[in-house]
Amino acid sequence: MYKLTVKSHFSAAHFLRNYEGSCENLHGHNWTVTLTVEGKKLNSTDLLIDFKELKKVLKQILEELDHRLINDHPDFIEVNPSSERLAEFIFKKAKEKLKPYKGIKVKEVSVYETDTSCATYYE
Asked: In this structure, how many other beta carbons lie within 10 angstroms of the beta carbon of residue 53?
């Protein structure tokens, strides 16, 4: 098996509904996101997938979230935009975008609110 990870970031605001504490108030983060994929076979260039392609997929997904109030995004109108839910959202979007790449599976997505706190989603 081969496993590749790319990292990117986005900046956005959010608030957590029904949270008792300061995170219930509007605030922002500079999130860091890692996307990890895996597969068994390399292509004719001995790559699982070109890092450029993987970075492009992640960038397209993060553009939906960057510099906005995440609570206003259609996927977060009723669901809290917690780091856990953001990781799940990014995972599912990446899974969909990577369908054309046969033999590549999204392994996990981690979303860091800070350098020391992250949430990871995997299936």
From this structure: 15
Q: Taken in order 8, 31, 88, 71, is the CA torsion positive or negative?
A: negative
Positions annotated as catalytic residues are 23, 67, 108
pLDDT in tens, 68-100: 999 999 999 999 999 999 999 999 999 999 999
In angstroms, rounded to a whole number, what is the distance separating the alpha carbons of residues 34 and 46? 23
Task: State the pLDDT at residue 81.
Answer: 97
- Separation of alpha carbons 19 and 7, rounded Å: 29
Specify the DSSP element, H or E, that contains 38: strand 27-39
What are the respective helix, strand and coil percentages of the chain, to the nearest 5? Answer: 30, 35, 35
For 2-121, CATH number out of 3.20.20.70, 3.30.300.30, 2.40.240.20, 3.30.479.10 equals: 3.30.479.10
